[in-house]
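ingest -> validate -> predict -> emit
validate: passed (alphabet ok, no gaps, 250 aa)
predict: started
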Amino acid sequence: MKLRDYLAYVVSAPSLEELWAIHCKQMEEYGFEKLFYGCTRYRTPTSLGDPDDFVILTNHDPEYINGFLHSGRYYHAPMFRWALDNEGAASWRMIPEMINASGLPELKRVHEYNQKMGIKVGYTISFQAMALRSKGGVSLCARKDLTQDDVDAIWAEHGDEIHLMNQVAHLKVMTLPYSPPKRHLTKRQREALQWVGDGKTTQDIALLMGLTAATVEKHLRLARETLSVETTAQAVMKAALLNQMYVVDA
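emit:
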């Protein structure tokens, strides 16, 4: 797909699933067959927030995801650490030098794990933060028949458009509804939060939804529990950050 056609499709993509499918297919045309996209909006100086709140999109095998993401290895991945402190694109050629310079055995162990799982050559893009607490990036793992020299040559020729495509895809992801497995609101919970966001009281919401005040309070309590927050105001903000507010289908 040509750049213009790709951009036209992405800006009108109706869902994350459709966006991610076409993006993976587009990157495969450049030799990148395994992608791992991650974004958080809850970063602080000492934390990236609850992993359950991360936006994660990937076409890696479940075995690798379990070992890399769910085990926590990702935090010590050399290019992940690079992405936290940098913006732009970087070749994985720099990994051995990073490991040696850091002196951290954790980085070496994660690198060896990636090598064992066939994650050997590629590029990482770290996106410009749009807010103080947000950070996003994507790793592009190349086909197994390509060397890092091959990938660097591909980047020299097509890197600008690959970078642009990933940036646009990232910006689009940030506008689409996302429901992490442990953060899925029911329709009623979402509706109650939307009315709270409109400034309605519990009594108002009960009338608008045709429920008792106690039932409204129950929906709001369950929404707080689902989103792992303490107050309803926090629940409204978190649901909004996940683009689950005021949508036809979330």
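Residues 3-173 form a domain with the Beta-Lactamase fold (CATH 3.30.450.80).
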